[in-house]
């Protein structure tokens, strides 16, 4: 049996941490687990290149030992391994940055400061500005995904 998920390598975690340092200081204390998804995932007829999930109590409990902190992880970032390994570095940055845009931090919240937010439009206003040099980057990555998974079908 093939397990669907695997830990992303250190270079991917380091890239995410650099992106956090450069543009998401509010996530500096968040514990984010990065996983590769090794199988095709689709939603609404589109291949999912990445997604982020806020931890629930079960995930927090199961990750306490791994993180060596009493609260476990705060988020899980899933990245399509096949696509990520076949796109350019600038698109890897864009993909991770896009997923981090879904993270919402409110240190005044009662239970946990971490939550998720949906797209402001079909993207995020900040992402449109940051990707003004290449607004169709996601379409290009989706084309890579389709070509990879078409070969497997």
Write up what this structure looks like.
By secondary structure, this protein is an alpha+beta fold. It has one domain (5-152): 2-Layer Sandwich (Zincin-like). It has seven helices and eight strands, in the order E-H-E-E-E-E-H-H-E-H-H-E-E-H-H. The strands form three sheets. The chain has a four-stranded mixed sheet. A hairpin with a 2-residue loop joins strand 3 (42-43) and strand 4 (46-47). Helix 1 (10-23) packs across helix 5. The two termini are 19 Å apart. The model has no long low-confidence stretch (mean pLDDT 90).
List the defining traits of the structure above.
four-stranded mixed beta sheet; 153 residues; globular; alpha+beta; Zincin-like; single chain; two-stranded antiparallel sheet
| Share in β-strands | 15-25%
Number of helices: 7
- CATH topology heading: Zincin-like
How do the helices and strands follow one another from N- to C-terminus? EHEEEEHHEHHEEHH
Give the helix proportion (percent range): 40-55%
Largest sheet, described in full?
Answer: 4 strands, mixed
Tell me the name of the CATH homologous superfamily. Answer: Metalloproteases ("zincins"), catalytic domain
Q: So what's the CATH class?
A: Alpha Beta
What count of structural domains? 1
What is the radius of gyration computed over CA atoms, rounded to a whole number of angstroms?
A: 16 Å
Query: Low-confidence segments, ≥5 residues, pLDDT <50?
Result: none
| CATH architecture verdict | 2-Layer Sandwich
Question: Could you say which structural class the secondary elements and strand pairing correspond to?
Answer: alpha+beta
Mean pLDDT rating? 90
Distance between the termini: 19 Å
């Amino acid at each position: 049996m093939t397990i669907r998920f695997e830990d992303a390598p250190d270079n991917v975690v380091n890239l995410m941490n650099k992106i956090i340092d450069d543009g998401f200081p509010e996530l500096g204390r968040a514990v984010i687990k990065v996983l590769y998804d090794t199988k095709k995932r689709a939603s609404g007829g589109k291949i999912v290149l990445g997604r982020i999930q806020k931890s629930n109590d079960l995930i927090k409990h199961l990750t306490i030992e791994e993180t060596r902190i009493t609260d476990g992880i705060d988020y899980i970032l899933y990245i399509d391994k096949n696509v990520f390994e076949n796109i350019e570095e600038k698109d890897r940055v864009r993909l991770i940055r896009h997923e981090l845009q879904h993270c919402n931090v409110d240190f005044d919240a009662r239970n946990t400061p971490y939550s998720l937010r949906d797209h402001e439009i079909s993207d995020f206003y900040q992402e449109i500005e940051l990707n003004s040099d290449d607004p169709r980057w996601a379409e290009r990555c989706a084309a890579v995904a389709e070509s990879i998974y078409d070969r497997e079908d």
